[in-house]
Amino acid sequence: MKKALIVLSIEKPNAKKICKEIEAFLSVKGIDSFVYKYDGISHSPELNEDYDLAISLGGDGTVLFTARYSAPRHIPVFPINLGRFGFIANIEPKEWEGELLQLLNGKQALHKRMILSTSIKRKNKEIVKYEALNDAVVSGSGIAKLINLDISFNGISFGVFRADGVIVSTPTGSTAYSAASGGPILDPDVSAFVLTPISPFSLSNRPLVLPSSGQMKIKILPARAKDIIVSIDGQEMVSLQEDDEIIISESPNKVKMAGCSPDNFYKALRSKLGWSGSSSPKLN
Question: Which residues form the active site (predicted)?
Answer without folding.
Answer: 60 (proton acceptor)
